Amino acid sequence: MIDLVQKRHPQLDCDVYVVPNSILMEMSEGDKCVSFVNVPDDNGAFQLFISAEVPYYGLIELIAHESSHMVTYGDEADDHGEAWEKEFDTIHDIWEQNQKDKEKAHKEAEEK
């Protein structure tokens, strides 16, 4: 998922960290969350913190969600607004097409 987002937005600079849930609770000032995006003051890379407790099958949705925040950062006051939703849907569409392409290639390879 991350590589698909980076192909779509090569200017996006992001470091990803997997951390204990207790650290996320501190960063989010006590709000219960499984991920957190930090925007550095110096316009450096975004920092995506993901709870080590997130099951692997939840990572795709979570990365699509947080990547949409990074891509639309500064575009709107409502951080789940129209621009965010459009980006989130587009990332999902690209992911689904990528999965279909992989399945097709795998079937074709098996038939040879």
List keywords for this structure.
single chain; 112 residues; alpha+beta; 3-stranded mixed sheet; 3 strands; 14% strand
Task: Summarize the structure in words.
The chain has 112 residues and is of the alpha+beta class. The chain is built from four helices and three strands, in the order H-E-H-E-E-H-H. It has helices at 2-8, 21-27, 59-72, 82-111; strands spanning 14-19, 35-38, 46-51. It has a three-stranded mixed β-sheet. Strand 2 and strand 3 (46-51) form a beta hairpin. The chain is globular. The model has no long low-confidence stretch (mean pLDDT 86).
SSE topology sketch:
Elements: H1 2-8, E1 14-19, H2 21-27, E2 35-38, E3 46-51, H3 59-72, H4 82-111
Helix pairs in contact: 3-4
How many DSSP E strands?
3
Total count of domains = 1
Which ranges are low-confidence, i.e. pLDDT below 50, for 5 or more consecutive residues?
A: none
How many separate helices?
4
Instruction: Note the run of SSEs as H and E.
Output: HEHEEHH
Average pLDDT taken over every residue: 86
What fraction of residues sit in β-strands? 5-15%
Biggest sheet record: 3 strands, mixed
Helix content: 40-55%
Distance between the termini: 29 Å
What does the overall shape look like? globular
Structural class: alpha+beta
Our Rg estimate from Cα atoms comes to 16 Å
Quaternary form: single chain
Strands across the major sheet, in which order? Answer: 1-3-2
Summarize the structure.
This protein has 112 residues and is of the alpha+beta class.
